[in-house]
Design brief:
Shape: globular
Largest sheet: none
Radius of gyration: 20 Å
Helix content: over 70%
Strand content: under 5%
Number of strands: 0
Structural class: mainly alpha
Distance between the termini: 24 Å
Number of helices: 17
Amino acid sequence: MPWARLRDWAELLRVPALFTVPGDALAGAAAAGLRPNRGTTYAACASLCLYQAGMALNDWADRDEDAVDRPQRPVPSGRISPTAALGAAGLLTAAGLTFAARAGRPALGLASALTATVWAYDLRLKHTAAAPAAMAAARALDLLLGATATLSVPDARRSRRRAADTTSPKTAPRTTTSAVAPAAPRTTTSAVALAAHTYAVTVVSRHEAHGGSTLTPLAALTTTTVLGLLLARTSASTGLVPAWAAAAYVRTAAVPCLHAALNPSPHLTQRAVGGGIRAMIPLQAALAARSGASATALAVLGLAPVARTLARKVSPT
């Protein structure tokens, strides 16, 4: 395939944004209290496929609108046909569900819910008031998919049972059942944090074509700052990595939001959306570190420079 053709597909699939995806599964594994395993790998692969499916489907669904607002995009410019974009969305969806199935039925169930959310957003909800909530739900489901897939591996279930047996009274009859389930409070908290950030970025993205909104970047700035402070506060006793990741998160997301609030031009609004997307990486790292997985957090942070470099060549929005 010629280089120009590869670049067209990279632009359609928004390749820089793909580096924000594996951290969902890794943060989910950390929230579940386990090291990444093959279930985590299946979840990350499923997430990558479903994310790319959503990108391709998004441009197929928006081809008429993009022909007016962003005619340089691959589909309206004719570099990729609508049929090819829709076909890619279907194939990538099938691949994502196949990877999830390898991690077990619970993971497949969550991946199916994630798929339904992605397709509903692109085909029906994107231009409605429910759009930010749908995107937030998709990110939360992605993290839960990582936690569930990690726990679905037989060795992981045995490890959780042994850990529960050593910490619970011998008289507790429900230890085995609770050991198989995710660490519910921590997993839920991580999913909610990721959803809140996604909601704020999605609200801003609704203005990136025309700009003009000062309140939405300010709201996103507030959300980012509050989340960063909460992560830094709850992570104070776990070392420097969580605080470092939280600071990186606030810096990556908040600065472009401030610029967009001061000058709500389409260009700066789009930069705020791009910053919000890239900020997913340090946010995922902060959530993993908050769960005590500092090595995982550092690995996730290592994706940030790559995403930033690619974003200079291909737009992540």
